[in-house]
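User: Here's a chain of 541 residues. Predict its fold as tokens.
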Amino acid sequence: MSGDAYGPNQQPPNQQPPDHGPSDRGFPGPGVFVPPMPSSPPPAPPDALRATAVALLNLSGLGLGYLLVRRRLPMAACLAATVVLLLVALPADADGVPAAALAGYAVVLLLAAVHGARVGLRTRLILPGRQPLALLLGVALLAVPVGGALWYDSAHREAVQRALLDRLDQADERVAAAAHEGFAAARPDYQDALAVYRDLAVHHSGSRAAAQVPDRLRTYYTTVAAAYGHHDYCTAVAPLEYLRTVPDSLPKDQLGALAHWPDDRLATSLYECGAQGLAGDGTDWVPRFGELLRTFPDAGQTAKVVPALDAAEKKAAKAVSGDDPCTAVERLGTLKSEITQLSDGSGTQAGALGEVASRAGRSGDAGEYQCGVRQYKDGDYAKAQGTLQQFLTDNPHDGNGARAKKIVIGAEVAQTLPAAGKKLPTTASGGGISVTVRNDSPDDITVLYTGPVTGSFTLKACGGCKAYSFADSITPGWQPCGDSGRNYPQRTISLPPGTTYFVHKPNHDTTATPGSDTAKLRYGYVYTECAYTTQSLASGY
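Assistant: Prediction complete.
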């Protein structure tokens, strides 16, 4: 079917008509030269329409232009390129076709179109006289790559939508799994999920997944703050603080009312957690109330802080008169220091907090008396002495000061003579029995006594007196304060009948052991008490 077509009466150019001479079969006769037939048809005249038709048919990606000009290998190459592209592109997914593959395929089509146009310019089609039809077919078949591209674009967009929905579901699953862990451990998962929500909302705002982000965020907030819903206020503080940072990373239109959703809940959690700590559950309430005062100064929860502290101070002050006054005093002292710490930087609440702290201090100081009395009654005389001495320092004009001084003396005596602590000293004084105390010691001494009455006084050192040796103390006839020619420093006091406990101690030697004596006083007798020094201070009468 190839070659030029001729009519029945036409002859090829430059050839003579056949000679039908002597041969009956139409062969040329002797001496006639016949040139050989050409190996391929001669080129056709240039035809731009034909070249355009071939180029357009090749642009379809099927190599049909090469088919019309009998070029099998280029046609096979076009089909192979199309098959490879389909294998790479299908099924459509969210990643789409690699740019290199698209660029390579476009180059193949362009080369096929240019090469096809060049070949078709001088090559007749296998369907003679069909150039217009081929051109129309080429234009029509352009719908194949165009339609394929449009179909693939739609499929790719749907694949992208499904992939985004899958990402959304994975973020939701991560949030649900994190809900079963503590917030500190779950926080990275919450942050990763939030990053997915943000990416969908910001970079894929028109997607179906992005349209569901606001609903997912509501679930996200309630999941993160689940401890608040369970009234676990101390645990809820950290998650709610975290949720207040979420608006920094998400568009406002995605959050709506959620932007301020944590505020009231955090204020409630800070107050309730602080109140629990104030009630004694071991929580450090100062940071909780401090954050509440700083972060939400005008909140209703903030207004409850001072009344709560005032109630705690009154409760502790009332407990001073109870069975455990020392614990109450310690509590008041702690309250004073903690409220003072809280008042620093608390703004408008500073004045009211300062008043509560001052009252706690005063109540604690006053409560030291009851604490010291309790310690004395419990037999902890050293603590009783220290507590009541501090009470006298803190409350120099308190009405209990006079008796506190007596109890301090009694506590010190009882540390040497425990029997002296069986009764709590009173403010009673005087009596009808004279007792003279002399100092046969080279040291200034303090004489302490307690019993029906309690008191103390000092005696100056005895000039010329010295400490007695142990041998002196066991010598027959030895008696301290027995030198009639010596003027011993002395003092006479009047005491009521009963048992009185005496302790003598040097004023400047804190390492010396105090001397002691127990005297059972009765009317009709005159008593003397002698203080002297041996290896340790002793006494007698």
